[in-house]
Amino acid sequence: MTDLQTGPGPGSGAAAPELSPEEEHERKLEARLERAAARGPKTTRVVAARVSLRARIVELWRSRELFIFLARKDIKVKYKNSVLGFLWSMLNPALTLIVYFLVFKVVLKNGVPQFAIYLFSGLLVWNLFQTAIIGATSAVVSNGGIVKKVSFPREILALSTVGSSTVFFFFQALVMVLFLVVLQHSPAWGQMWLLVPALVALLVFTSALAVFLSAVNVYFRDVEHLVQVMLMVWFWAIPIVYVFHQVQSGLQRHHLFWIYVADPLVPVVLTFQRVLYNVSTYTPPGATTPVPLLPEHSTAWYATFNLAVAGVSALLVLGSLVVFGRLEGNFAEEL
Amino acid sequence: MTKPIAVDVVGVSKRFRLYHEKVNSMKERILRAGRNPYEDFWALRDVAFQVTEGETVGILGRNGSGKSTLLKCVSGILQPTDGRVVVRGQLAALLELGAGFQPELSGRDNIYLNASLLGLSTREVQRRFDEIVAFAELEQFIDNQVKYYSSGMYVRLGFSVAVSVEPDVLVVDEVLAVGDENFSRKCLDKIKSFQDEGRTILFVTHAADLVRQICDRAIVLDQGRMLGYGLPGEEIRLFREQMMEASGELPVALEEPEEPLPSAPRPITITGIDLEHPGSGSRPYLLPGEPLAVHVAFEAIEPVDDVVFVIEIRDRVGQLVFGSDTEILEHRYDAPAGSGRADLTFESVPLLDGTYGVSIGVRSRKGATIYDWRDQSDHFEVMNPGRATGSVSLTLRADIRAASLS
Question: What is d(CA B84, CA B87) in angstroms, rounded to the nearest whole number?
Answer without folding.
Answer: 10
